[in-house]
Amino acid sequence: MFKTNQHHLQGNLFGFDHYLPDKQQKELSGTEEKAFYDLIFSQIKEEEFACLYSETYSRPNAPVNCLVSALILINKNNWTYEQFFKQMTFNVLTRTALGLKTFGNNPFNRATLFNFQNAIAEYYLQTGVNLLERVFDHLTAKQLKELQIKTNIQRTDSFLAASNIVSYSRVRLLVEVLIRFYRVLDEKDKGKLKNKFSEYIAHQSAGHYVYSLSRDEIPHKLIKLGELYHYLVNNTLAKNRKHEIFKILTRVYFEQFVKTKGKIIVKDNKDISSGSLQSPDDPEATYRKKGDQTSKGYTVNLTETAHPDNQLNLITDIAVDKNNKDDSTILNERLKLMKEKTPDLEELHADGAYGSSANDELLEESEIKLVQTAVRGRKAGRLVIIEKKGDQYLVSCPHQTVIAGKTKKKYKACFDQSICHCVKGTYYFTEQDYLKNKRLRNLEQLPPNRQKLRPNVEATVHEFTCKMPNKKLKIRGKIKAEFFAFMTGVGVNFGRIHRFLAKNPDKSPCGVIKVQEERYTNQKNRETWRDFIQASIFFLQNYLHQPNTSCFTKIAF
């Protein structure tokens, strides 16, 4: 049964803040953890998570704002789960961040936190809705509005996030999948197939099998593996086909082998897609080589505000996708959503990987100017194409300007060769060429203070990658990679806001002031109760020691 957490709004007579001296209470109110309570914990919409719980009357859930805040703190501080629970149990500051006022029992245990994440993942698979993404979007929208951050100019960049998987060689991957399939069979089926698997299960692991091979043996072993895969795909009993590992085995067979004229042929490396299985532990991970760097996992795309007038910039959009997907494709899929989040977006700074003909059309439709600091492919040449009206274009070189006429499929601009030779006679172009030419000229048309806005987004990328040793995530799977990205994004934005407000306390958002007012009211109530208790103790201390027995009798009940 779902129930919102209101305990943190109530005063506690025996809270640890009563036992702190006034100086320490004042220091506590200025800590980052107290700011986290105000800016993040108190702003989480718990009702969004009601869909994870039963509607029938039953045992209430663990506090959702505590669970979500725990995930944010774990990713923000790069804690292990063990480190987090130690902090929550013994650290006054961490308990303050989670709205806990005493050193009583913890609001949840490890199993509860893991089950909560599993429930979010299951809901995501069923509905396509990531509840943690909603947390990020809600908090960011509120922060942008209350801090009056300009969002019409933004910048974007991406980074590779490798999954926490073993880097398998081809043979090792094939053997690993076979061994795992053999493990799920019942004893009867294992007995029937033991001879076919004996060569592989005789070793301690797939790695040990590969280490026992010489380089010359590998081609023959690959053919033998292909034949075994072909047999299993076509002869496995229906009861064993339901196992997830059989689906992986079938996928690997069609990715690595092909049957030609009755023979099983091993595919060349160049014929195997970058989207082929990289590990049975993470079927969604893909392969990508970017420069000298290779990665098996995902790509994370970040977008943040970048207006020169902003004293503070926040991340506005995060996207996690397969790493073999081009940056321009990711932008094409996210652009409408980015426009919905920040409707006034009109200028987006990016590197050369984000440009494409499809994006040019979508950007023109959305009235967004893409500014690229490095352009891949053909550079902007000496020709400038300017739209005049409707189907008419002006094409200029440094020496002359002509009006382009429309042909059946393209536009044609005829240059006077007696004036210059920038173009040899006639120049043909399409509307896509015009949009590309327009994009390539966007940077040089900006004032100097807006031509170098993009590089600072690399510092934002570092705030994520610094939590990934060797740019490798601590988790596996696209869903968990998204959890990491969104929770880290909340933490990064919070850190920026906290540092900004520490220097500019007069800029506190209205939501924070409201929470502070509620806390002030609760504090006054606590002080009233404290005065009452102190007066009662004073009364008891003085009158219990009076020789008048009748007085003692009256109050001894």
Architecture overview:
This protein is of the alpha+beta class and 557 residues long. Among the domains are: 170-271, no CATH class; 381-440, no CATH class; 513-555, no CATH class. Helix content is 47%, strand content 14%. The strands form 3 sheets. Strands 1, 4, 5, 6, 7 and 8 form a 6-stranded mixed beta sheet that branches. It has a 5-stranded antiparallel beta sheet with strand order 9-10-11-12-13, covered by helices on one side. Strands 2-3 form a two-stranded antiparallel sheet. α8 runs parallel beside α11 (218-235), α8 runs antiparallel to α13 and α14 (327-341) runs parallel beside α15 (357-366).
Question: Per DSSP, what share of the residues sits in E-state strands of 2 or more residues?
Answer: 5-15%
Question: Span from first to last CA?
Answer: 41 Å
Using the CA coordinates, give the radius of gyration: 32 Å
Decide which structural class fits the backbone: alpha+beta
Tally of alpha and pi helices: 20
Q: Which stretches are low in confidence, meaning pLDDT under 50 for 5 or more residues running?
A: 549-557
Query: Which sheet architecture does the biggest sheet show?
Result: 6 strands, mixed
Apparent shape? flat
Q: Mean pLDDT across all residues, rounded?
A: 89
Count of strand segments: 13
Approximate helicity band: 40-55%
